[in-house]
Every structure is written in structure tokens, then in C-alpha cells.
Amino acid sequence: MKLQLTEEQLKFQKEISDFTREKIIPTADERDREDVYPREIIKEMAAQGYTALTVPEKYNGLNRSKIDACILMEEVAYGCAATAISLITIFQAETMLMLFGNEKVKSHYLPLFREGLIASYSLTESKRGSDIRSVDTKAKKKGGSWIINGKKTFITSGSAAEFFILLAETNKGVSIFAVDRSLPGITTEIGDYSQTIGLRNGPHMDAYFEDVAVPDYCLVGEEGKGVKQAVITLNNSRTAAAAISVGIARAAYEHSLEWVSSRKAFDQSVINFQGIQWMFADMLMNINASRLLTYQAAFLHDIGKASISESSQAKLFAGQMATKVCSDAIQVCGAYGTTVNAPFGRYLRDAKSYEIAGGSNEILRNTIGKEIKKNLQKLYS
């Protein structure tokens, strides 16, 4: 693997960095306090093609690589992780359609992402959590449509979603559907646990589906194969998720370093204390190690050798790393680090939240462990 970014990728990185500093960072703390979806920013990103970054050109996308997606996510998360989460829910919906959708559903929906379509990945139910092997939401075939009834909960980006990727039980098992928010019978509301401490891109809504008629072509992939498709799609997004954690950690590292470099204590700059230098050495080492692991997983995707283990390792390591870096950033900044006017509280809340969202540390360890067992069987068979 070539570990150096190309000139084109470096140019893209600067382009996203400039966009983040101009459009995202100035209002990041305000949006976090108000817990609102960054609709205008997402629409601006769509106009630049960023929301359709990995979508094929035939569907009006930019057809860029997974590493490019990681570059995008890290730079956006550096400014605001909640905005990056808004992006990743769109990417998950696109990925599901690209990997499993029939031509009609792809031709209908994929071009709309370049126009700013806001999507949500609607898996979770209140009684199921991470277990999606069976769901209470039901879909029954009726003529040329599927009739969907049920409730989804804790939907990221749900307050603004115009489109859902939804899991529902059919006669053959759990299946995936592409569901337009404008269809009759869909309502959303703020639930008891909709507002979170981190990754605040609007309340994580509850959605109710009452006799919602979805066209037959909106069955995504094969009936009864929804769990497999959902797992593949989630794995596909975990490199981008890891990059978000890297971006959060980098922001905490850089802003705390800036503070201690200008802060005086005991007649010298705080950065001159060896103990402080050691903390920053560990922060930098772990950020760089996490980025390399993330790029390795993305590279395997790009060459057609996607690894569930590598992607899960990347997200697990990055999530834990980001929480530790953000905690240490607060520590080195002392009282300033704990103030509401400093950004470190947001960084820490976002970092910790992403140890749970998108695949908890425990689920990721289970996944990695299963892959280790598989490799053992191959080794000794």
C-alpha cells in the first residue's frame, strides 16, 4: 500500500479544509447547543458534489475512492462531528442502493443525492437495539406495492430526513426498503430518548409507519437478505466512521496544543513541562496510528478486498483513541478545558458517543473475534 496521498488527494483535502473553516466551524458550537440539523451546510456540500462523493458518475456522483471519503470525513469532523454524522447517514443510504438496489431504484434516487437529498438509515427499534436479526416492523406484499407498518426509533438525521433506508420483516425474513418520507402514513416525533449528549445533529427521531405503500421496485436487494445487506453496508461505512473519530481527536489535539503553547505557568509556557509534552506525544502517536489503520481499511475496500476485521479494527481503535485524546486535551488545558465556551466539552461528548453509535465497541470486538476464529479455521483446515 502506498501511504502517501496523491497530489489530487492533497488538493481535495485542502479544498475540504477550507470549506470546513469557512462554512462549518464558525457555527459548530451554536448548532451543538441548539441540537439542530445542519441543513444549509449539507445543501452547500451537495452543490459541491461532496454528498455524492463515492456515487458513480452515471448517477451524477463524483466516483471518488474510500480513501477520499475518509479525507472528507476527517476534515468535516475536525470542524463539527455532528455535520460529519449527517454526511455518513447519507453515505450509508447511497451505499445500500449502490450495492444492492435494482436499476430502477438506483436511477430514481442516486442522482437526487447530488441535489441535496437528506437520507437516514432506519434500523433501530426500541426492543431490538443492535440485534437486527428480527424486527417488529412488518411489510406485506399487496399488488404492485409493499405495505409497511411499524415503528423505528433513535433515527440519526431523522429530524430532517427526506428518505429512509428501512428494515422490515417480510414472509421471507428481514428485508430492506427505500422509503420516501413524503409517502402518506409516515409521521415522526421526538421520543423520550431522542436528544443525545453528543453528535447533536438534531433529535434522533421516532418514526411511525402506518399502512405506508412502497412501490415494488423499492425493495432493495433480495427479499429476506436484509440483515446480510445491512451488515455489509455498516461495515462499508466503518472506515468513514473511523475517520470521523480521527477528525474529532485532531481538533482536540490542535486546539489544546495552541492553548498550552500560549499559556504561562510558573514563569514559562505550559508546553515546556515534560509531563505535558509526553501527553501530546501520546496524542499525536495515537492519532497518526489510527489514521493509518483507517486508510489501510479504506485501501482494501478500494482494491476490492474489503475486510470486515480491518474496518471494525479501524472504528474500534479510532473511537477509543478519540475519547482518550479529548479527555487528555481537557486535562492539559486545566480549568479552561472545562468551560462551556471552550470546544473541548463538545469534542469529548462527540468522541464518546461515537464509541456507541455506528457499532459499539463491544459489537466491534465480537466482529473482530469472529473473523479471528474464521482465519484460524482456514489456517488449520
TrEMBL record:
Q: From what superkingdom does this record's organism come?
A: Bacteria
Q: Where is the Acyl-CoA dehydrogenase/oxidase C-terminal domain?
A: 224-372
Question: In its keyword annotation, does this UniProt entry include Flavoprotein?
Answer: yes
Name the coenzymes or cofactors required: FAD
- Alphabetically ordered keywords of this record: FAD, Flavoprotein, Oxidoreductase
Q: Name one GO molecular function term.
A: acyl-CoA dehydrogenase activity
Residue ranges of domain Acyl-CoA dehydrogenase/oxidase N-terminal in the record = 6-112
The record's SUPFAM superfamilies line, in alphabetical order, gives: Acyl-CoA dehydrogenase C-terminal domain-like, Acyl-CoA dehydrogenase NM domain-like
Keyword Flavoprotein assigned to the entry: answer is: yes
Give start and end of each Acyl-CoA oxidase/dehydrogenase middle domain. Answer: 121-212
Provide the protein name.
Alkylation response protein AidB-like acyl-CoA dehydrogenase
Per the UniProt record, the source organism is: Cytobacillus oceanisediminis
Organismal lineage: Bacteria, Bacillati, Bacillota, Bacilli, Bacillales
